[in-house]
Design goal:
Blueprint (H helix, E strand, L loop, with lengths): L7 H6 L3 H17 L4 E5 L2 E6 L2 E8 L4 E4 L2 H6 L8 E3 L2 E4 L7 H17 L5 H8 L1
Antiparallel strand pairs: 1-2, 2-3, 3-4, 4-6, 5-6
């Protein structure tokens, strides 16, 4: 079994050109929307953490790319996402038609706001994030 990637760059290096380009654009949009978030790999896929908790994930699958901002941002921006295949916490899109940066920004900001209204990260989560 191949080793799981330990960095986003290692994950992206294993992807096809179209997927890598689409996911790099998504990565830049996430970073712009959440500059304090830190890159990581969680469950074997790229993620961004904020205050020790995973903020969002993204990945490539066999037939699509996916962005995982959680259920709340998807519900909050259902109209803007109407042209995409969505489920509870997932937005699927074709690599040849990446998510617009403005839409990614809205979803990430909604996730950050959701975090702000929930309980704060535990001390253990902060320590894990600092590693």
């Amino acid at each position: 079994m191949p080793a799981k990637p330990r960095t986003i760059d290692a994950y992206l290096a294993k992807q096809g050109r179209a997927e890598r380009v689409a996911l790099e654009a998504l990565r830049r949009a996430i970073r712009a929307a959440a500059p304090a978030a830190q890159e990581s790999v969680s469950y074997g896929i790229p993620a961004f953490r904020l205050d020790g908790r995973v903020l969002v994930w993204f990945a490539a699958a066999k037939t699509h790319c996916a962005f995982y901002p959680g259920a709340h941002p998807i519900e909050a921006h259902a109209d803007a996402l109407s042209r995409y295949d969505t489920s509870k916490g997932t937005v699927r899109f074709d690599a040849s038609r990446p998510l617009p940066a403005g839409l990614v920004r809205k979803l990430v900001k909604a996730r950050i706001e959701e975090f702000a209204t929930r309980r704060p990260a535990t001390e253990n989560a902060r320590r894990r994030a600092a590693r």
